[in-house]
Design goal:
2 domains, alpha+beta, S-adenosylmethionine:tRNA ribosyltransferase-isomerase activity
């Protein structure tokens, strides 16, 4: 499959710049992957698509305020995006980072000195501090890492809005945005229908939004991302499927964790009797056969992106293109703070 097949024309004014004041009032395009039928709903109406015995699985990762503004020794500013922690000791913490420009050397973040350097593992920032001190610095001085297509500076309100209501496991540098539409009340209403609500963790890293730079999708390599799944949940999943009920996955990150495990496309990172812990680099694109997920709740994704490839794998390229064109025609809001799509 060629990357050009994942392209589509999108008016810039449809890229959502701010969240809705009420999460569950987003619009929701419902696509039946068997018939191609499309319905237009409000997200809170998703309750109507569940049946007793179904399972809803969410990604409980929590976005850290991973964007730091540093000052170079020359006095200029440098933007630093924390990717993942590499090392930590009582006096030394190292994070993998991305920065604008090729600067190396000392930086000051709110008068706290750190060092940026590059080695064979890429660019890193070194804090001569305890892990607790570094966490406090990030929490207090960091900004939410809004994606570049949101053309404004992060605001204090983004700390709440760019986070799911069930976020608890610190570690992501981007939100699992399909989950942003859920409220606690909506989740309660879904549970009242006899739906099993369950959580997994996948920490969203650069793998989810790294652009595809090859012409042939088969040649693209995903950056691996850390995930955790309870073994008891895996047993429950297979029981639900055995009974003919549906597994609803919230977002492409939840889907990648589940399917990465089921496809045995992961590196074990210390699994035990209670949990599977691993890093998955699974790249799901058309031709992939889904092993766990029956229904997908997602947002509208960037052209030529890996999440869009996953959606096309789930219900077919032509069906997705038709749905996207109808969403554009009807003025849906796109990307992270945009509207939702339910594929059943």
């Amino acid at each position: 499959m060629k990357i050009t097949e994942l392209d589509y024309p999108l008016p810039q004014d449809l890229i959502a710049q701010k969240p809705l004041s009420e999460r569950d009032r987003a619009r929701m395009l419902v696509l039946n992957k068997q018939t191609g039928q499309i319905e237009h709903k409000i997200f809170s109406e998703i309750v109507d698509y569940f049946y007793e015995g179904d399972m809803l699985i969410v990604n409980n990762t929590k976005v850290i305020p991973a964007r730091l503004i540093g000052k170079k020794t020359t006095g200029g500013k440098i933007e630093i995006l924390l990717i993942r922690q590499k090392e930590a000791s009582s006096k030394n913490v190292v994070w993998e980072v991305m920065t604008k420009g090729r600067y190396e050397g000392e930086v000051f973040i709110d008068e706290i000195k750190a060092e940026i350097r590059t080695n064979c593992d890429g660019k890193q920032i070194i804090f001569r501090m305890t892990p607790q001190e570094v966490k406090k610095l990030i929490d207090e001085k960091g900004f939410m890492p809004l994606p570049p297509y949101i053309k404004r500076k992060p605001e204090e309100s983004d700390r709440k809005h760019y986070q799911t209501v069930y976020a608890k496991a610190n570690g992501s540098i981007a939100a699992p945005t399909a989950g942003l539409h859920f409220t606690e009340e909506l989740l309660e209403n879904i549970a009242k229908k006899g739906v099993k609500l369950r959580e997994i963790t996948l920490h969203v890293g650069v793998g989810t939004f790294k652009p595809i730079k090859v012409e042939n999708l088969k040649e693209h390599t995903m950056e691996s991302e850390y995930f955790e799944i309870e073994r008891a949940l895996l047993e429950e999943i297979y029981e639900v499927k055995k009974k003919g009920k549906k597994i609803f996955s919230v977002g492409t990150t939840t889907t990648r964790a589940l399917e990465g495990y089921a496809s045995e496309r992961y590196e074990d990172m210390g699994s035990d009797e209670q949990k599977v812990r691993g890093r998955t680099d699974i790249f799901i694109y058309p031709g992939y056969s889904f092993k766990i997920v029956d229904a997908l709740i997602t947002n509208f994704h960037l052209p030529k992106s890996t999440p869009l490839a996953l959606v096309c794998a789930f219900c077919g390229l032509e069906m997705v293109k038709k749905a996207y064109m109808e969403a554009i025609e009807k003025g849906y809001r796109f990307f992270s703070y945009g509207d939702a799509m339910l594929i059943i």
